[in-house]
Amino acid sequence: MRIRKLTGALAAGAALLAALLLPAPARAAAPASPAVAYTNPLVNQRADPHIFKHTDGYYYLTATVPEYDRIVLRRATTIQGLSTAPETVIWTKHATGDMGAHIWAPEIHFIDGKWYVYFAAGRADDVWKIRMYALESSAANPLTGGWTEKGRIATPMDSFALDATTFVVNGVRYLSWAQKDPAIDTNSNVYLARMANPWTITGTPVRLTVPTYGWETAGHKVNEGPAVIQRGGKVFMSYSASATDSNYCLGLLTASATANLLDPAAWKKNPAPVFTSNTATGQYGPGHNSFTTSEDGRSDVLVYHDRNYKDITGDPLKDPNRRTRVQKLYWNADGTPNFGIPVADGATPRRLSSANFPDHYIRHWEYRGKLEANVTNLADSQFRTVTGLAGSGTVSLESANLPGYYLRHRNGEVWVERNDGTTAFKGSASFHQRPGLADPAGVSYEAYTAPGQYVRHFDFLLRLQGAGTTQAKQDATFHQQ
User: Fold this and answer.
1) Residues lower than pLDDT 50 in the chain
2) Residues with active-site annotation
3) Which fold, 10-32+350-480?
4) What is the model's pLDDT at position 62?
5) What is the pTM of this model?
6) Which segment of the chain is annotated as a signal peptide (predicted)?
């Protein structure tokens, strides 16, 4: 193997040298979490989406409908298939009394051989007297089976309560939800309790988070919509904050899976939001999320709603256009989730990891294409594969956080630059996507305007060069993630 010049700080150089000394088979391994391919939005006018992947081979989707009057459910064998799957009304609001208005945020779970749907509802004669309720079905197919009302999920405080979710850590089932405490000046806070059965909590609930940061109190003082994902001995709880307009965003709590989760001190709140509106991609108010896994079970998928415009006329709750969206959830080197940005509508972007440096990704830095590890600004390393600007069976790689900017070569270097509409630019930003030169499971990019020349890394910068040697083939091979 030829020796490369190591650049950067001494620590970074040592890490790169260690990577170079790894045996080739270990460095050329295919990614453990391959690319997923979805198209957004998944479903229009469906807010607070919850997707549950069941052992029967189906994904189940439920969400808030803009009329706030019913609970709907659809299923498909793929996540994208939910987009066009028939939708069934499994329950309708009561004409009078409890459960008669504001049917919000349903979630579907399969517990001990039965289906449960948690949801929030107001009274027909007091629409803001919102409490949490549960439905149960023993049918194999919850779209066709009957549902039994298990009644209200009671909490010690008889106050505004919504967004119930459930999860299990170390064999213990918990319920988390949002509720208003009349004793403090907030709209809602996030709580946690153990469960005696799927519709009953037990013991004394604890309050995990109160909205205090500016990003949690814009418009309204809100912490709501908890959702849990576990990885590497950690429990991560995302939650939504602020008003349901463009200020809506996601925060994150973290605890050790071995900690006493009913001790609020066991949870650490991230001081900054982890998922926010993005003007460049045209996505506003992302929030009320859930998590699922990809069809092959190897990637985590973030499910959420947002709008594709910022300005709303009147009450945001009366605006029907929150859409269900999905995109891959990535993980940082330290084991924390990286939500990235709400990606543009259309095909979801991917990352491109080096075949011979699997922890290094193509990214742009000051518009220069390079290879780098630990890219915590995730969107710098995400590119959408689109029809080549030059056509003729080519592809172009569009930046996720700079829509309209593409990887292109000039003077033997690879940059991310804005499409100026010229024939020269379109040609230099178009590539023939080939099976990986060093690994057919990967991809290599041959220049449309320079046959035999490939995008490759050299000294961790992207260049356009020939790939006639074994080393060059490795340098020009990438895995989509």
Assistant:
1) 1-28
2) 48, 224
3) Trefoil (Acidic Fibroblast Growth Factor, subunit A) (2.80.10)
4) 99
5) 0.93
6) 1-28
